[in-house]
Design a protein that fits this description.
about 60 residues; alpha+beta; two-stranded parallel ribbon; about 40% helix; elongated; exonuclease; endonuclease; hydrolase
């Protein structure tokens, strides 16, 4: 059975506070496929190209 993890990242609202919880949930469920909605690349909150998904991917390895 394929496990899919789908999450709305909710823009950058409290993202720094939520990031560790998101990572813990992904590690706990150990999905085969991960999908996100509302991924943002906003230079007020991240460097160029280092959007939500890339930040999470970097932390997860």
């Amino acid at each position: 059975m394929t496990k899919i993890f789908d999450l709305n990242l909710w823009n950058y609202n409290n993202f720094e506070e939520r990031k560790s919880h998101i990572i813990e949930a992904i590690m706990q469920y150990d999905p085969d496929i991960i999908t996100f909605q509302e991924v943002r690349d906003d230079l007020r909150f991240n460097s160029i190209g280092h959007n939500h998904a890339r930040q999470l991917n970097t932390k997860l390895g």
